[in-house]
Amino acid sequence: MGTAPNGYNTPKTNWAAGNVPAASxxxxxxxxxxxxxxxxxxxxxxxxxxxxxxxxxxxxxxFANRIKAITGKTNWYDAPSKTLExxxxxxxxxxxxxxxxxxxxxxxxxxxxxxxxYAVCDGSANNYTVTVSGITSYTExxxxxxxxxxxxxxxxxxxxxxxxxxxIKTADGDxxxxxxxxxxxxxxxRYNGTNFILQGxxxxxxxxxxxxxxxxxxxxxxxxxxxxxxxxxxxRQALIxxxxxxDWTIQDDDMWxxxxxxxxxxxxxELDIIAKxxxxxxxxxxxxxxxxxxMYSDKNISIKLPYPNNVLHRESGVWKAKNAYYWDGxxxxxxxxxxxxxxxxxxxxxxxxxxxxxxxxxxxxxNSDNINVYTPTAxxxxxxxxxxxxxxxITGAKKIWIDWVNTGSGLSVNSSFGLITTKTTDCxxxxxxxxxxxxxxxxxxxxxxVSSLSGNYFVAVEARKGGTSNSxxxxxxxxxxx
Length: 482
Prior knowledge:
- By secondary structure, this protein is mainly β.
- Helix content is 12%, strand content 34%.
C-alpha cells in the first residue's frame, strides 16, 4: 500500500469528557489537515482494485494501477504513446492505414458483384429463378451459388432478380443435361457475359488418368496411369460412325472396353474423356444388353473408369484379357492377369446386399476382410443370401471363383454359390450355375465353369439350414477368370 502523507501524525481517538486539549493537540490536528493537503506521499501502483470500497490511500493506489494498465507503460505516470484524442482521430480517419481497406472500400465491396451470392431456387424444372440482394444487373464475372429446388430434365435457364432469363451451360459451352442439377444440391454459376456457366462441369479432367495401349512400357509421371500390354502397338483408326452391333461383330483391329457391370450401373455412369496426341477418337455408351464402351483411335486415351482392372480387349475377332499395369510412382505394377474381382478381402468392386431370405434371423454382415452370411439356430428353416447389387455381364468369362468357409454346426448346414437371374431368387434351388455344399467345411477356393454362358446375372452366396443347426459362411473373395 502507498505511504501516509509526509508530516502526518496518528490522531488521538480516545478523547473523554473533561479532557482539556493542549497546544500539542491543536498542532497535531492542524498539522494532519495540512499533511493531507500538502504532504508528499508514495503511491503503490502494484495494488489491484479488489472492490468498490476502500480508504483514500487504497483508492489512490488503485487509480494508479488502472492508469498503468490503460496506457501499457511501465509506470502510471509515464506519458502514453497516444492520447484518447489521438485514438479517436485515428478511428475516424478516412484512410488510417496505408494498404488496408478503408470504410469506403468495405462499402464498395459490399455492393461488388464479383463475389458469390447465395439463394434458394424457385421456379420449375429447367426454368429456375432466384432472388438475392446486391445484384441489379448482369455483369461479367458475377457469381451465384444456388440450391436447386427440383431436378432438371434437360437444358436449363436461370433468372436472377427478374433481370432476364439466361442459359445454364457447362464450361465446354454445352447445355446442361438431365440430372446435372439435383434437388437439394448447391451449385455455383458464374456469368461469362452471355450465359451462366456451371462451375466444375466440363472443360476439365476430374480424376482422370492416362491409359496406354502399347507393346512396350510407356514413360509416365502420372501415379495411377494404366498400361495395357499389347502384342503390337495399335495403329490409329479413322473415326467411324456406327452403332455397336448386337452380335459384337466389329472390325478386328478396333479396340473396345467392356465394363463388367449391369444396366443400372452403366446408365448412371459419368463418363469423362480426353484424347491426347491422336487423330480422332470416339466413345459411345451402348445402353442395350451389351454394356460396351466403344473406342477408336486408342493410341493414348485418358478416361475415368469405375474400377480400371475390369476391361477386356477385342483382337482379331476374339475377346482377350491382357496384362494390365498401374504406375505407382516408381514402377509398373500388374493388376490381375485375366482376372476381375467382384469382392476381395473387404473391398467391394461391385456392391453386395441382402437378396433372397426365408424364415427369420438371418444376417449379412460386412467385416474388414469378409462378408459374413449367417443363419441362426432359432429358426429351423432360415435362409439368407448375399447378392451383387447389379447384374454382372459374364460373357467371355471362363470361370467364376470363390474363396469361402462355413463354420456352422449341426446336422443340416448348407451353402450355395452361383448365378441367379433376379436378386431375390433362391440360389440353392434355382441357380443357373451353382455349387451346393452340405455340412460345414474349412476355407477353400473353388470355381464354377461359366464358359457356356453369356449375358447378365447376379452373383449370390447363400446360407441355409435345417433343424437346430446354424450356417455360418464367411466370403473372402469372388472373381471372374477370362
